[in-house]
Structure formats: C-alpha cells, structure tokens
Amino acid sequence: RAYLQDLVKFVERASRMSEFTVLFGLCVCILVGISYFKKSGDKTVGTGPIFKTFQRSFLFVFLIMMAADWMQGPYVYRLYSHYGFSMAQNGQLFIAGFGSSLIFGTFAGSMADKYGRKTLCIMYGVTYMLSCVTKHFNVFEILMVGRLLGGISTSILFSAFESWMVSEHQSNSFEGAWLSETFSLMTVGNGIIAIVAGWIAQTAVDFMEHPVAPFDVSFVFLLIGTILIWFNWRENYGDVKTNTSDAIKDSIKKIMASRPIFLLGATQSLFEGAMYTFVFMWTPTLERGGNIPHGVIFATFMVCCSIGGALFEHLSQHASVETIMRAVFIAAAVFMAIPIFTENTLYVYGAFLCFEVAVGVFWPGMGTLRSRYVPEETRATMMNLFRVPLNFLVCLILLYVGSLTISQVFSICVLFYTACAVMQHAFIAAAPAPQATSSLPTAH
C-alpha cells in the first residue's frame, strides 16, 4: 500500500511538472511566431547597413555583459549558504549590494557624463570581475566588499550602456524611430540570454561541483566584453564642464522643474520597485500549491519577457509609446491583484506569465521615453538618479517583507502600479511632442 501511495504521488508530481513544461513550450512557440511575423511583415525598422552594423555590435557586447550578470544571480545566496553563513548574514550581504547601488548610483551617472560613457562601461567590467574574485574567499568582510563592488557595477550596467548607445545613435544621425527597435531587441535578447546563461551556470556547477563556478565563467564573459569595448567603442560624453556634485544638483533641479521628467522617473522607480518585490515573492507564492519546477518557471518568465519585447515593436507602430506604457501599468496592476484573491496555482501562474509580458513591453517602452525626454548632456546622471528611490524601496522590501503576508505584499504592488498608471496619465497630459534631442521639456 505504501508503494502504491508513493507511485501515485510520483505520477501526480510528474503530471504537475509536465503542465509547466507544456506552458514553457507554448510560450516559446508564441515567441517564435511573433519573431517570424516581424521578420516577414515588418518593413518599418531600420535597414541601413551602417545602422545595422552599429546595432549588432552594440547588442553583441551588451548581451555578453548581461549574460555575465545573469550567471551570478541565482547562485549568490547558494554560495553564501555553502560557506555557512546564516540567513541574517545573507540578508546583510544583500542589503549591502543594494545599498551600494543606492549610494554610488547617485554619482555613477554624472561620472559617465563627465569622464565618458565608454570609460564607465569598462569600469563595469573591471569592478564586476573584482567582485567575482571575492567570491572565492570564505570571509564575510571580503564577501561584503564583493557585494559593494557588485552594487557599483549594477548602477553602471543600467545607465552607462544605454546612455552610450543613445548618444552614438543620435551622433550618427540615425532615425529616432529606430531606437525603439534597438530597445526591443535588447529586451528580447536579454530574455533569451538569461535562459542560456542559467544553463551555462548550472553546467559549470555540475562540472566543478562548487557554487563558485558561475562566478568564474562570469569573469570570463566580463573580460571578453571589456576587451571588445576597449578596442571597438568610441568615447562619448555628456556635460564635461560641470563637476560631479554640481552635475547632480543641476540634474535634480531639472527633474524637479520638469513635470514630464519627474513623472518619468517616478513611474520607473515604482514599477521596478514592485517588480523586484515580485522577484522575491513568486517562489513562495507558487509554492503554496506544492512543489514547483523553479528552473522551468524562470525560463518561462524570461520567454514571456522576450514576447513582450517583441510585441512592443508592433504596438509602437499603432499607438504612441506614452499610451502603451499607461496600458502596461494598468495591466500590471490587474495581474498582480490575482494572488490576493486566489491561491489556485494555475490562475496565479497565468497571471505571473502575463505580468512578465507586461514587463517585456515596459523595458523598451521606458528606454524609448528616456531617449526622448531626458537631456543628452545629463542622460546618465538622471538615469542613475531615477534608480536612487528604486534601490531605497528594494532595501525596505528586504528589511520588512518577512513580516508581511503574501496578500499584503501583492496589495502593495497593486498600489504601486495603480499609482504608475495615474502618473502616466498625467505624463501624457504634461509631455510635449516627442523628440530625441537634448532640450529639456518644461512643465505645463
């Protein structure tokens, strides 16, 4: 009888896992279908050979650097646990990383504008490689230094690369509409590379039988990307005359003086803050219904994010990016409300997949809006200032998420996304005609 019970449990578990696998396959088919439709029917994207060469060279390096980041993420907590650190010590290390990004992010953007975006992209590779080296030491203080370096690297990754690309795009006089295509491909490629990087990292762990292996592979990717940037990218700058502290003060004044820019930064911070909350919460939420295949679910999330990135290009041909983003925020609020009202795994997982599609639309949409409304001379500075409240929110989440119920956490997410939708409506009313110049939109 015990044998039969075990057999029944095994069959039920296998059936449950197969459902997740089928959904992964379905999402892959959807992504392939959208990509094929785009390739065969889309005649409006950038086709110039010079632009295509520029676009491919940037995407190649950008995705190498993103792959290096993706390899590390799933194994940070596991490595610290392997070294014997407690959950409390793990929390301190994680907060140190976000805190470092919070503090250094205030200065990283202005440094990129003043000393060069290419220089800061190289600095990303160097600091992240040093962070990888610290992972070989089972010493809390050294690992803390590594987390601080990782926080610095994250600030650079999400500002300097985009700033360099947008500046080069504009200096080469490429059409402004082609930027949306590049942002879309960045999102699609990032989702795919996350899956590939995860597989490479797992293979490295299996081969070396140690959770530090992904960090060694990441080091190699970072080294390759840094060398490519060093020899192939040219330097571009923002405002080189103003010192760092004055540049920050000036950017803050411009953000506060311009309602569109202020609303743009506020919606980005709230959206990404709630998104990182989701990153922390999806596992315990889905586990309420039993065991789940974490790897398959993560891969499906990334495919859905790529679907959103691919959809953005089509949507932007039929509606303004500003209007699309308002719909994204409303959809995100609806999908994040599902776990509040039900624990049904199928319904909740379906809502999570739809949310990831919305996230996939958000990334190129927000990038396009930044390219239009954020002044070129302080682009990297403002982008990092946008991330300051984001990192503050993430630190708060790490500190207090354990004392809240799942429903309470997702209620906060719904509140954030509802606020984003309201602010985006105000943004549409306040924003001037879209443009990709360095001029500053003024408040109405």
Task: Name the helix and strand elements from N-terminus to C-terminus, one letter apiece.
Answer: HHHHHHHHHHHHHHHH
Helical content class: over 70%
Q: Helical region count?
A: 16
Strand % is under 5%
State the separation between the terminal residues, measured CA to CA: 75 Å
How is the biggest beta sheet arranged?
none
Silhouette: globular
Structural class: mainly alpha
Mean pLDDT: 86
Radius of gyration: 22 Å
Number of strands: 0
pLDDT below 50 for ≥5 consecutive residues: which ranges? 435-444
Walk me through the structure.
The chain is mainly α and 444 residues long. The chain has helices spanning 2-41, 49-72, 76-82, 87-115, 117-134, 140-157, 160-171, 178-208, 213-232, 244-257, 259-286, 294-315, 321-341, 345-373, 379-400, 406-430. Helix 8 packs across helix 14 (345-373). The radius of gyration is 22 Å and the shape is globular. The termini are far apart.
